[in-house]
Amino acid sequence: MNNAMLLHRLASLRQVTQAASIHTHVKTIAQLSSKYEKDEAKENWLKEQGDGGSVKYTRNGSNPDLGQVTFHHKEKLNAFTGAMMHDFSLAVREAVKDERTRCVVVRGENGNFCSGGELNFVEKIASEEGSYVMNTVMMSSLKKLANSDKVSIAVLEGSTMGGASEIASACDIRVGFVQGKMGVCPGWGGGRFLVKTLGTARAMEYLSTAAVVGAEELHKVSKHAFVAAKRMVVNYSGKNRNPKEREEEERRIFMSVWGHADHKKSIHDIRENLIRAKKEKSHKK
Ligand SMILES: C[C@@H](C(=O)O)C(=O)SCCNC(=O)CCNC(=O)[C@H](O)C(C)(C)COP(=O)(O)OP(=O)(O)OC[C@H]1O[C@@H](n2cnc3c(N)ncnc32)[C@H](O)[C@@H]1OP(=O)(O)O
């Protein structure tokens, strides 16, 4: 890249950063946090936005040391609906409190981990309110898992996409992040785990290559997502912030991209691709 191109890129990133912060402040985080003061209110709101599937905590009968959190939504490769986010909070609370176990296995039914957020639900909550509630609920569950004294193991079988990568990163295993392709950044609290596990350089690489697309393409899909990836890495690598400030900044970064026009367009495109792929499969039969 020559100097002129670099300057042009920097100027466009600066504009994007300014636009992103305006977008974030339409409704303030403070207003939303007083509206949804209690965890229960946020969890119930999510449940009302999207039904289908469930998440359950059980103990493994043959091995009493093992607790298990299982995603049940096999017809959609265990994609997470609002109801499942609600259940996941309860299941994680139960799992980390269970004094009889030392280990929590996190897995999906039917040989698939999870294909991320369920797209109808994701589209429905592509708003500032949706990003705030989903981010706080999922971040809180993943923090509980990560900070618990139990060993947590994500069983990564079949599909592990989008938000599912964040669940995996809060356990011991990391996988590719596809959120960049959707014009957003990690919003279930997984950004921190990625930076912690991989260090800044690899985390930026994972977030900006989004495993299935290159950085140039990601920049084309959404400049906002590109900037958000950088802000996410800086947030968890700089030394000048306390943990609460970092968490608030993570939420602001996520809210600056979730529900943006780039995000809505990419949800639409992904759904269209799934429908097209289904038609092609049925023609081949
Ligand atoms: C929270 C948010 C974030 O950005 O952070 C997210 O996580 S966004 C979500 C990010 N996740 C994604 O973009 C994954 C979208 N899904 C896919 O690309 C694909 O389904 C693969 C995961 C690669 C699997 O392909 P494969 O050909 O093996 O199966 P398939 O496509 O026939 O999927 C089986 C059935 O599950 C459905 N299905 C799969 N993933 C889904 C999802 N995330 N939401 C809603 N439905 C989904 C398909 O439409 C299909 O339903 P029918 O049988 O009715 O046709």
Automatic annotation (TrEMBL):
Catalytic reaction equation(s): (2R)-ethylmalonyl-CoA + H(+) = butanoyl-CoA + CO2; (S)-methylmalonyl-CoA + H(+) = propanoyl-CoA + CO2; (2S)-ethylmalonyl-CoA + H(+) = butanoyl-CoA + CO2
Broad enzyme group: lyase
Cellular compartments per GO CC: cytosol
Keywords, sorted A to Z: Cytoplasm, Lyase
Matching Pfam families: ECH_1 (PF00378)
Transmembrane regions listed in the UniProt entry: none
UniProt GO molecular function: methyl/ethyl malonyl-CoA decarboxylase activity
Enzyme Commission identifier(s): 4.1.1.94
Recorded superkingdom: Eukaryota
Main localization category: cytoplasm
Segment forming the signal sequence: none
Keyword Lipid biosynthesis listed: no
InterPro entries, per database record: ClpP/crotonase-like_dom_sf (IPR029045), Enoyl-CoA_hyd/isom_CS (IPR018376), Enoyl-CoA_hydra/iso (IPR001753)
Compartmental location: Cytoplasm, Cytosol
A biological-process GO annotation: fatty acid beta-oxidation
Primary role: Decarboxylates ethylmalonyl-CoA, a potentially toxic metabolite, to form butyryl-CoA, suggesting it might be involved in metabolite proofreading. Acts preferentially on (S)-ethylmalonyl-CoA but also has some activity on the (R)-isomer. Also has methylmalonyl-CoA decarboxylase activity at lower level.
Family: Belongs to the enoyl-CoA hydratase/isomerase family.
Name of the protein this chain belongs to: Ethylmalonyl-CoA decarboxylase
Organism, scientific name: Pristionchus pacificus (Parasitic nematode worm)
Gene that encodes it: WBGene00105398
